[in-house]
Amino acid sequence: MANFYKDIPELKFHLDNPMMERICELKERGYRDKEQYDYAPQDYADAMDSYDKVLEITGEITGEIIAANAEGVDQEGPHLSNGRVEYASGTKQNLDAMVKAGLNGMTMPRRFGGLNFPITPYTMCAEIVAAADAGFGNIWSLQDCIETLYEFGNEDQHSRFIPRICAGETMSMDLTEPDAGSDLQSVMLKATFDEANNCWRLNGVKRFITNGDADIHLVLARSEEGTKDGRGLSMFIYDKRDGGVDVRRIENKLGIHGSPTCELVYKNARAELCGNRKFGLIRYVMALMNGARLGIAAQSVGLSQAAYNEAVAYARDRRQFGKAIIEFPAVYDMLSTIKAKLDAGRALLYQTARYVDIYKALEDIARERQLTPEERQEQKKYSKLADAFTPLAKGMNSEYANQNTYDCIQVHGGSGFMLEYACQRIYRDARITSIYEGTTQLQVVAAIRYVTNGSYIATLREFEQMPASAEMQPLLERVRKMSDKFETCTNYVKDADNQEMHDFLARRLYEMAAVCIMSHLIIQDATRAPEMFTESARIYVNYAEAEVEKHNAFIARFTQDQLAGYRK
């Protein structure tokens, strides 16, 4: 049977990254749990072995159960009955298998029943699951909302809610409303304090809520009467056991059919404050969204892997004009480009995850003791890198998922348009990745300050100093020239001193930064494992070089006067 971890050696490669030793040391606090929990690792080698085994179990469940149920779940979907969601039969089987395997609350401390895993191996599990069924991946991976509750909730909330997630209960984050999508500061769901019962009451409507009938919800609501901006919003915890929230409808979607996307009606629903009032959007949702964006990046990589698998299998089997179509240049060009984007995007995903791991572990340690000056500097460095890389990982991988699944259908030709082939489901599922948890356009907004303040170019110059194999040196020199063009374009836009022009060209600068960074990462991977990544490095740098040249030519010729022609 297929194992979605063991069958993809690139995952093991990224798990074995040298940064993992520092991550494990921080996450395990010097492996102190070994005295209290018999399943806690004794040392670094033991920790890595534990991650490897859990990933193998996840890969086995994914290959034998989740993948086998994917088509049936896509066709059946969830149902709505008396204001409650009932999952598709295959989804229930999937959840049961994951819970029985203990794959919930993976990143939570052991004292709550979690596995105390770093973000990186958990993100790999999310990628693996998404490669089989992206819709189910949404339901299962929303467990990472518990990270926000752990970070900002109090000890009493930790003790009541985290063990339930570790035991297999589900979560959702209820943010968007009919009139508040990307503009979350316009949220109007009303939160009022009930003095008599010493609780908060929520009233209003939430829309497009993934897994909206979950057991535990994190809810963004307006707690400060008379406010209209983000400073009047707070974060709340709603427990489904308390009632007061009904599902008005399940949306009829293009893809991710197994994942119920709900419209929720809050009617005097009992809730409790998470963290401090007025920080809901300013601080807590930002943390929640960054975690979700890393999750969508993982989902996107999983979908790209699925697209590559389907395209290669079909191209090897399908014969035309007396030979397999994989032998035709037009086809193997598409296949090799899918693989190169997949490898480069995955490198960006796990580099980002490792940055997140270090800064989050240090943040957690800071709750127990004062950080040393060196640790504070390390925390600051990796927090900034994580913040800069997350919108690149989410935006670029979601765009690549859309491109790769499109090309997968193209490889299938007419068969790809038929519902009998999995590629059409993968294509439909991929479309949402560049929309939810912040559109690609919003990822550009999040990233552009790191273009203009010089952070990305500084990172690129640091990457240029990293050792590369002799075989990779010519590619490294080409990427250096790509970075020069990116820097020149950035300075040109900054020197124009025109905000509209800056905003108009931001997407192109963002993409230039991203492809230069991914080129460096794939070169580093090819240096460490040439047998695995050399061809992808060559193909991706060719692709990236063309992208940089395209954007460079556009920006170099663009003037402020041309903006008028684009306005409608």
Describe the structure in brief.
GO terms for molecular function: acyl-CoA dehydrogenase activity; flavin adenine dinucleotide binding. By secondary structure, the chain is of the alpha+beta class.
Q: What is the approximate shape?
A: globular
Helix content: 55-70%
- The overall average pLDDT, rounded, is 97
Largest sheet, in brief, is: 7 strands, mixed
**Strands, count:** 11
Structural class: alpha+beta
**Rg for CA atoms:** 24 Å
Low-confidence regions: none
Q: What is the tally of helical segments?
A: 18
Strand proportion, as a percent range, falls in: 5-15%
Order of helices and strands: HHHEEHHHHHEEEEEEEHEEHHHHHHHHH
Distance between the termini: 55 Å
Polypeptide structure, described:
- Residues 173-268 form the Acyl-CoA oxidase/dehydrogenase middle domain.
- Pfam families: Acyl-CoA_dh_1 (PF00441), Acyl-CoA_dh_M (PF02770), Acyl-CoA_dh_N (PF02771), AcylCoA_dehyd_C (PF12186).
- Residues 92-169 form the Acyl-CoA dehydrogenase/oxidase N-terminal domain.
- With 568 residues, the chain is an alpha+beta fold.
- Helices cover 59% and strands 11% of the residues.
- It has helices spanning 9-15, 20-27, 44-76, 89-100, 119-132, 134-141, 146-152, 155-166, 280-317, 329-366, 373-412, 422-430, 440-452, 455-464, 473-496, 499-528, 530-557, 563-566, and strands at residues 79-81, 84-86, 171-174, 190-194, 199-210, 216-222, 233-239, 245-250, 261-274, 319-320, 323-324.
- Strands 3, 4, 5, 6, 7, 8 and 9 form a seven-stranded mixed β-sheet that branches. It has a two-stranded antiparallel ribbon with strand order 1-2.
- A hairpin with a 4-residue loop joins strand 4 (190-194) and strand 5.
- Helix 2 (20-27) packs parallel to helix 10, helix 3 packs antiparallel against helix 4 and helix 15 (473-496) packs parallel to helix 17 (530-557).
- The chain is globular, with a radius of gyration of 24 Å.
